[in-house]
Specification:
With 301 residues, the chain is an alpha/beta fold. It has helices at 13-24, 42-55, 78-81, 103-113, 127-135, 164-167, 170-177, 188-191, 201-207, 209-218, 235-242, 286-297; strands at 3-9, 28-35, 62-64, 118-122, 143-149, 183-186, 248-251, 253-256, 267-270, 278-283. It has twelve helices and ten strands. Strand 2, helix 2 (42-55) and strand 3 (62-64) form a beta-alpha-beta unit. The longest helix has 14 residues, at 42-55. It is globular, with a radius of gyration of 17 Å. Bound molecules: calcium ion. Residues 9-10, 12, 14-15, 38-39, 123-124, 234 line the site of calcium ion (CA).
């Protein structure tokens, strides 16, 4: 049985890679794409998600969610993804309407209707997920786990202390990490353990239509340590779901710094626990990551 998942996303070039892989992998069943503010404003992340779904002729509904964080003003990253959020490839304008403009309610409905608990895959700021858990606590038992991209046990990227997705809405991240739900955190630690070397990009380009599209997006992507290779952050969540055996995983307690002069949005990761509902992806062999990425891309058109 494929794993039923909901992707909550702010496309975003690495989001585009994660969504492309997830839509076509036989072990995954993507039931909803929910959009959130993040890399670029909500209007653009939503349009980008719709464009991707239509590009693949995928029958997956798209719903838009929160346009802003719970407390602070929105933070965007056009310097990483381009002003549109998916610079480098020209997609058709989307024609399929959104299934709703309240993705929190759509997620709730989908979860409560599901016969097996679902996996949430948030790969943007956690505003929608925090709202879902606070507004509809009855969904808890319908959530198998949350596999999220965000946070860091070490240094940050948007600031020396904070990773972008958590920094973009620290209060929401705090709510999610305090929820008690099983959480797998794919943060900067795992993204720094491996990357897509530039030498691999021609192979990706020539593999198929999806590889061709991603190649052109990657030309405009300025993830961390771009000189060494591409850090395709969001793709680690999808790879973990399909290949958990490749990852070194540690239990930890995660708290989010909500105040402080310099460290707002930092994740405080305490490994000094014997057991926890939260686990951190800490390591993957660089070769295993590259092999698995190519293998997953082969399922794409
Ligand atoms: Ca993202």
């Amino acid at each position: 049985m494929p794993i039923p998942i909901i992707i909550d996303t702010d496309p975003g070039i690495d989001d585009a890679a994660a969504i492309s892989l997830a839509l076509h992998h036989p072990q995954l069943d993507v039931q909803l794409i929910s959009t959130v503010h993040g890399n670029v404003p909500l209007q653009l992340t939503t349009r980008n998600a719709q464009q991707l779904i239509e590009y693949f002729h995928a029958r997956v509904p798209v719903a838009s969610g929160a346009a802003a964080p719970l407390v602070q003003k929105p933070v965007h990253a056009p310097h990483v993804h381009g002003e549109s959020g998916m610079a480098g490839y020209t997609f058709d304008e989307p024609t399929t309407p959104l299934i709703s403009n309240n993705s929190v309610e759509t997620m709730k409905d989908l979860l409560l209707q599901s016969t097996t608990p679902m996996t949430l895959v948030p790969i943007g700021p956690l505003t929608n997920i925090a709202l879902l858990l606070k507004m509809y606590p009855e969904v808890h038992t319908y959530i198998h786990q949350i596999v999220l991209m965000g946070g860091s046990a070490g240094p940050g990227n948007i600031t020396p202390a904070a990773e972008f997705n958590v920094y973009a809405d620290p209060e929401s991240a705090h709510i999610v990490f305090q929820s008690g739900l099983p959480i797998v955190m794919a943060g900067l630690d795992i993204a720094r353990a491996s990357n897509l070397p530039h030498a691999l990009l021609p192979e990706i380009k020539d593999m198929n239509q999806t590889g061709h599209m991603l190649y052109h997006l990657f030309q405009h992507y300025r993830g961390e340590s771009f000189l060494d290779g591409l850090n395709v952050y969001d793709a680690y969540t999808i790879m973990y779901l399909c290949h958990p055996e490749l990852f070194t995983v540690h239990p930890a307690q995660v708290d989010v710094e909500l105040s402080g002069n310099h460290a707002r949005g930092a994740t405080f990761v305490d490994f000094n626990v014997t057991d926890s509902s939260t686990h951190i992806l800490m390591d993957i062999q660089a070769e295993d990551f590259q092999t698995a990425f190519l293998e997953m891309l082969q399922y794409c058109p």
